[in-house]
């Protein structure tokens, strides 16, 4: 795997993690309830779910590629089409007026780090978007002769970036001005992520 390939994969994973959504809402909420420890635990649980989805997608795609090359080509094209759809949705979201993220921190009873971790894991595993996303994304990077080490690198990258982003937010939750600034940049995040996914999908379809 080249550095260029890894950087492309890392960029898509990072922008995907940064996109506002239920995972962001969950991490902020668990941080509010359990402090920094609760937020970090939630981030760790969510990253574990991301890693499990990435592992399942990588292993499944490698098996399909080896046994049914034509089927893998079809999956790859469908994945590229899905990335293009996500890209269009991101650009449309960026064009809309800035929205208040659906991540209001509700006042609730304090929670333990273990409960926060379980919540993070449940949120990631219950999100079918992640499963489809990793099948679509990894189909563009996994190759028939890719060694196990490279597959592990992709999985660890997805987990590490996911945990790093949400852990950073948990550490910054005590500074509302910083978090509100991130919310104001949501259109920029949507636009950049949408453009990157759109270009990646188009590149695959044109090969």
TrEMBL record:
Its main location: membrane. The keyword Transmembrane helix applies. It comes from the Bacteria. Pfam families: LysE. InterPro entries: LeuE-type. It is found in: Cell membrane. PANTHER family: AMINO ACID EFFLUX PERMEASE RHTB FAMILY, ARGININE EXPORTER PROTEIN ARGO. This is LysE family transporter. It comes from Chromobacterium indicum.
């Amino acid at each position: 795997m080249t550095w260029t390939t890894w950087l492309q994969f890392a960029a898509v994973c990072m922008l995907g993690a940064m996109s506002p959504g239920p995972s962001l809402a969950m991490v902020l909420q668990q941080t509010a309830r359990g402090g920094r420890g609760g937020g970090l635990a939630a981030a760790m649980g969510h990253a574990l779910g991301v890693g499990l989805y990435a592992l399942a997608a990588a292993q499944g795609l490698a098996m399909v590629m080896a046994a049914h090359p034509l089927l893998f080509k079809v999956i790859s094209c469908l994945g590229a089409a899905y990335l293009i759809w996500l890209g269009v949705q991101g650009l449309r979201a960026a064009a809309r007026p800035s929205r208040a993220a659906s991540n209001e921190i509700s006042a609730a009873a304090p929670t333990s780090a273990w409960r926060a971790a379980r919540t993070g894991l449940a949120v990631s595993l219950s999100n079918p978007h992640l499963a489809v996303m990793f099948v679509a994304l990894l189909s563009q990077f996994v190759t028939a002769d890719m060694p196990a080490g490279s597959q592990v690198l992709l999985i660890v990258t997805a987990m590490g970036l996911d945990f790093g982003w949400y852990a950073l937010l948990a550490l910054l939750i005590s500074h509302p001005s910083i978090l509100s600034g991130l919310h104001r940049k949501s259109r920029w995040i949507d636009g950049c992520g949408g453009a990157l996914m759109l270009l990646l999908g188009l590149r695959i379809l044109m090969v």
